Amino acid sequence: MTEGSETVADIEARMERARGAFARLKAEMARAIVGHEALVEHVFIGLVCGGHCLLEGVPGLGKTLLVRSLGEVLGLSFSRVQFTPDLMPADITGTNLLADDASGRKVFEFQRGPIFANIVLADEVNRATPKTQSALLEAMQEASVTVGGRSHRLDNPFMVLATQNPLEMEGTYPLPEAQVDRFFFKLVLAQPGREELARIADFTTAGPPAPLRQVLDGAAILEIRRWVRETPLADAVKDYAVRLVLATRPGREAGEAGVELARRYMLYGASPRGLQSLILGGKARALLAGRPNVSFDDIRSMATPSLRHRLIVNLEADADGIGPEAILAEVVRRVPEAP
User: Fold this and answer.
1) How far apart are CA 283 and CA 241, in angstroms?
2) What's the pTM value of the predicted model, to 2 decimals?
3) What class does CATH assign to 2-220?
4) In this predicted model, what pLDDT tens digit does every residue of 26-36 receive, in sequence order?
5) Which of 130, 131, 186, 181 is nearest to 163 (CA)?
């Protein structure tokens, strides 16, 4: 039996290669990162799905170390931009500089900015002005930047990991909802527990760690990205994902799954980009686990990172202490697998 030009053996070998590659990546990342196993998985899923991630967490949780280590393990270039109120768009994208050509004439030469890397850490993205934020998000959306009327393509693969601090909100410019919607995942970093703190102390106060080994490269990432989109999705599982997204909308008929909580606390539900993230994330999770198709559990596990930043709650939700995660948990609990 074949699917297109591939045999069943080819598909099984492809799944095994993807599963093995992810296992090697997790093992190597564990040598530098304490805990955060789910975070590493979600960031890698975002990368192989061609998306970008918004990381939320207090300082000191290892966000920069995570991104730098991921670049080393994957053999990808890495850059870090500290966002501040005086940061200008040209500080990210690059600018034209006056230089001499071979004949001595004055010409403008494009100087590439830090956005020209495979993995870009945009640290505290909400501290920059909306003009600078939009320059970054345009690059995320178009995979190119335009300077002086000329378009410059970004490196491929390309991924932005933007961070924001949930505590210090004074003097910040929160990302508008339409821009937040362009992030594939929103991931929340948890504080380490007792055992993890002890391991962090061992990691950071002993001798210098051994350098990380490269286990994948950019070409392998692009190949896995193609495999993700070719992972089969049953109609019943696709319909389940659609109903999860619909159940987050406040205007649905009363009595349907998840509607009561959404109708009371929601202003706007998840967008079509949320459905795309839900399905692509489910495909990547299935592929990296070495399974031939997407399961209902794959979709459920992607619901929170895919949709939490796309739900807009009302003032009553703020007063009652109800956040998007609580609404999503209720939606997942109430929406049945079969309609």
Assistant:
1) 12
2) 0.88
3) alpha beta
4) 888 888 877 78
5) 186
